[in-house]
Structures are given as structure tokens and as C-alpha cells.
Amino acid sequence: MPRALITGITGQDGMYLAELLSGKGYEVFGLVRGQNNPRAQLVAEAVPSSRLLSGDLRDLPSLVGALDIARPDEVYNLGAISFVGMSWRQAELTSEITGLGVLRILEALRIHTQGDMSKVRFYQASSSEMFGKVREVPQNESTPFHPRSPYGIAKAFGHYITVNYRESYGAYACSGILFNHESPRRGQEFVTRKVTRGAARIALGLQDTLFLGNIDAYRDWGYAGDYVEAMWLMLQQDEPGDYVIATGETHTVRDLLDIAFHRVGIEAWERHVRQEPRLFRPAEVDLLVGDSSRAREELGWKPRGNFRDLIEMMVDADLADLARHPHDPASAGRTSDWEDPRWAR
Ligand code: GDR
């Protein structure tokens, strides 16, 4: 039975990956941060056979300990502070976890394998945010990076340190440069889920207005369930490498609004949406669209479904969820603290 350790198992991707691997017969271990992490229960429900180990990407001994217990064949490093908007507010913490955390888990692996880093396969969750300011369209594995947020900069460090451990120590280490990927499990701070949740709440009369930032940004949005499959495929190749994972289609936040509001029977979303300067980012990534030819050719990977299906699925899931839990505090549509205008100074 192959064994895998997933950092960030409590996040959207961690949960889909845990389900995928356990369905393939893996023994799945997950690293969980903090005492009594409330999201651990969600993982236990989704993948009852998974085993959760305490550890933190800020704490090297805990990482070595988790590796010694899990004795994995594959390690997937998905743990990060992943919300770009927040990374300006907590730039140091983002660098510490999203950036230096990658070095720590690689170093823990070097200790655990006693230097033979080819023995355990390693996946690093790199991001299209590393491309940042548009240099070329579409973006592929050789497009230069120009990150525009502390998050993107931390991810660029993680990417390069992964490449460096491959080149320095012969690590079997892959970096997946994933473009945006969404699902009903997406956190409500991200724009797709904020919009699908907001449209559903407005249609049900639970909310009247949705506050957004820049709705002219273009993103290449795919389905998270497809993207975790690409992570696994990368680690099944003879040689490790870096791959862009994307749909190749790009849409604006406006397109997202069109589809989500249409799904709930509202055509004039403009009446319900207000753009607020406090929700604009200090530096924006205007246009992302990925060229995943390498993954398609070498891994045989391709995305299923399209953008409209994805957004409609998310709206339907939010409507169903709100019908079950209309008073769920997590769905109260409150302004989160990162949106507080005092941060904008
Ligand atoms: P992103 O995702 O930053 O691309 O990173 P997000 O959904 O947060 O933003 C996408 C675009 O929407 C614009 N936007 C808003 N975004 C949010 N969150 N809230 C708003 O109110 C809002 N209004 C407009 C943003 O400015 C941006 O242009 C995601 C994350 O999952 C990263 O961890 C991952 O690495 C990349 O995708 C690939």
C-alpha cells in the first residue's frame, strides 16, 4: 500500500487529494496545525481512513517527526497562507509559511531520507501568482516571473528552492504551477465562492448587496478536482519536472457575475454589486491564462468541464447549503476583517 503525507490537508485541495489518493489505495497521512484544529473534523468525515499528524510548517522538528511516523512514498506540500489579499497584511507570516515553509519541509525530508532524496517523491504547490505582471500570453513553464504580492513572492521562493533541491541533492521534486482552481469547497474569501455564495444569498433574500474589488481582472479558472489529479500524475513520471496546470481559457470577474447571477434568475447584477476601493489590491495581477501543453502531452492530463459548468455547480451547491443551514454563521455574509477600510491606509 503506497503512503502519502499531505500538508494543508484541511484546505480545498488537500481534501480532494486525500479523497483521490485514498480511492487509489494509498494510506493517507495529513499534517494538521494547532491544537484542536476545527477543520480536522471535515477531513475525518471526508476521508475516514486518513490519519492526522500534528505539525507546523514553521517547526522543523515537527516535520521530521511527521515524516518519521508517516514514512511516505510521496509528500504533497499544499500547506500555505493562500489568500493573496491577506498577504499584504501579514507579509512576514506569509513569507514564513508559504515561502520558508517549503525549505523546512524539504530539509525535513533530507534529514528523514538521510540524504537520499530520490527515495521520496515531493510535490510543491506553486502558483500562477508567480507570473504576476504580464510578460507574455499565455504563460507556460518558461515565462519569467514578476510576482505582485507578498504571497506571489513567497511562492516564487518555494518554487526555486524546490528546483534547487532537485538540482543540489537529486530530490525527486516537482513543482505544479497551478492556475486558479475552484469548487464548492472553496473558502468564501476567494472571489468565485464569494460571488456564488453572494448570488445565492441575494436570491434567497438573505442579503442585498455584494461588495467587490476589481471586477475587470482576468483569471484562468478550473475545477479543483481535476487539478489534484495533475498533482498525482506529476509524481508518477520517471523524471521529476515542473508543469503548468490551467484550462487555457480566461474570464473576467464580470463574466463570473453574469453566470452566477443568471443561475439564480437575476439578470441585472449591477443593482446588487458595489465596487469598493478598500477591496482593490495594492498591486493587481491583471491577466492570467495558462498554456498547459506540457502537462497535456507528458502527463496525459486535461481539464474536464468548462467555466460555466463550474460556476453553476458552485451556485447550486450554495443554494442547497443555504436551504439546509440558512443561519449558519459561516454564511452570514459578514465583512471579514481583512476588508476593514483601516487597512487601506
Ligand atoms: P487569486 O484569487 O488572488 O487569483 O489567487 P482570488 O479569488 O482571491 O482573486 C481573483 C481576482 O478577483 C479579484 N477580486 C476579488 N477577490 C477577492 N478575493 N475578493 C473580492 O472581493 C474581489 N473583488 C475582485 C481579485 O482582485 C483578483 O484579481 C488564487 C488563490 O487560490 C491563490 O492561493 C492561488 O495561488 C491562485 O489563485 C492561483
Write structural notes for this entry.
- Its EC number is 4.2.1.47.
- Keywords: Lyase, NADP.
- Catalyzes the conversion of GDP-D-mannose to GDP-4-dehydro-6-deoxy-D-mannose.
- It catalyses: GDP-alpha-D-mannose = GDP-4-dehydro-alpha-D-rhamnose + H2O.
- Pfam families: GDP_Man_Dehyd (PF16363).
- With 345 residues, the protein is α/β, with parallel strands linked by helices.
- The chain has two domains: 3-181 and 222-245, Rossmann fold; 187-220 and 250-288 and 305-344, Alpha-Beta Complex (UDP-galactose 4-epimerase, domain 1).
- It is built from ten helices and 13 strands.
- The protein has helices at residues 12-23, 40-46, 60-70, 91-112, 150-169, 191-203, 224-234, 253-263, 293-299, 307-324; strands at residues 3-7, 27-32, 51-54, 74-77, 121-127, 172-178, 181-182, 210-212, 218-219, 222-223, 242-245, 251-252, 273-275.
- A seven-stranded parallel beta sheet has the order 3-2-1-4-5-6-11, with helices on both faces. It has a two-stranded parallel ribbon with strand order 7-10. It has a two-stranded parallel sheet with strand order 8-13.
- Helix 1 crosses helix 7 (224-234) and helix 6 (191-203) crosses helix 10.
- The longest helix is centred in the first third of the chain and has 22 residues, at 91-112.
- The chain is globular.
- The chain starts with a strand and ends in a 21-residue tail after the last helix.
- Residues 341-345 have low confidence and may be disordered.
- The structure holds guanosine-5'-diphosphate-rhamnose.
- Guanosine-5'-diphosphate-rhamnose (GDR) is lined by residues 82, 84-85, 127-129, 178-180, 189-191, 194, 212-215, 217, 219, 253, 279, 281, 284.
